[in-house]
């Protein structure tokens, strides 16, 4: 019987090539700094052509955010599953924050699966204003996605925006602590939510 769980060969090759480009780019960024690395250099390191690079990424900045689409899918999928159990959320900040917490913790766990470049990526972003700007746009995208999930499940606009931004703040606090102390990212993010809950009160489970 054919194993339908195994991706087709073409898809596996696509993922391998993409992963190779990301690894090559991040290695070069770590060694030489972001500004001193070119697309041609990344392609050469990955042993692919420039045209192949541009089939996967629009520019070298986007390599830094290569997992953005996947992480957003994780956030939305997990948040929707939790929200379905609490619909309609209405004006309940506790329920909305519960949904946002589940989504953000799932994102943290997925990031931790590929955390080898976490510290390097953060250093590069801090050193480069253009990367800071693009990072802010990406972060806003996660907040916006969380808001949309909450609105679809009956939350008021005020509650949806507040809960999504509070969850984003807890992630930022956990991320900063994980990098500063070298601890597990999901644990640090979970601790940040716990500290907030100590003040705000527990969310419904």
Automatic annotation (TrEMBL):
Question: Sorted alphabetically, which keywords does the UniProt record give?
Answer: DNA-binding, Transcription, Transcription regulation
Stored PROSITE patterns: HTH_TETR_2
Which InterPro entries does the UniProt record give?
Answer: Homeodomain-like_sf, HTH-type_TetR-like_transc_reg, HTH_TetR
Q: Which GO terms describe its molecular function?
A: DNA-binding transcription factor activity; transcription cis-regulatory region binding
What residue ranges does this record give for the DNA-binding region? Answer: 38-57
Q: What SUPFAM superfamilies does this protein's entry cite?
A: Homeodomain-like
- Residue stretches making up the HTH tetR-type domain: 15-75
Membrane-spanning residues: none
- Which Pfam families does this chain map to? TetR_N
Name of this chain's protein: TetR family transcriptional regulator
Please tell me the species this chain comes from: Dactylosporangium matsuzakiense
Instruction: State the organism's lineage.
Output: Bacteria, Bacillati, Actinomycetota, Actinomycetes, Micromonosporales
């Amino acid at each position: 019987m054919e194993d339908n769980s195994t991706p087709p060969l073409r898809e596996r090759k696509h993922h391998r090539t993409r992963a190779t480009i990301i690894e090559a780019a991040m290695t070069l960024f770590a060694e030489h700094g972001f500004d001193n690395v070119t697309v041609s250099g990344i392609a050469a390191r990955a042993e692919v052509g420039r045209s192949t690079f541009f089939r996967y990424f629009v520019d070298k900045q986007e390599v830094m955010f290569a997992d953005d689409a996947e992480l957003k899918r994780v956030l939305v999928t997990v948040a929707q599953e939790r929200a379905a159990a609490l619909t309609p959320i209405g004006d309940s900040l506790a329920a909305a924050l519960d949904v946002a917490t589940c989504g953000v913790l799932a994102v943290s766990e997925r990031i931790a699966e590929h955390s080898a470049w976490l510290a390097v990526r953060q250093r590069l972003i801090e050193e480069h204003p253009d990367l800071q700007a693009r990072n802010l746009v990406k972060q806003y995208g996660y907040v916006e996605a969380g808001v949309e999930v909450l609105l679809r499940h009956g939350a008021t606009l005020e509650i949806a925006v507040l809960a999504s931004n509070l969850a984003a703040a807890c992630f930022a606090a956990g991320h900063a602590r994980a990098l500063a102390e070298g601890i597990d990212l999901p644990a640090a993010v979970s601790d940040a939510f716990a500290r907030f809950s100590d003040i705000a009160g527990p969310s419904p489970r």
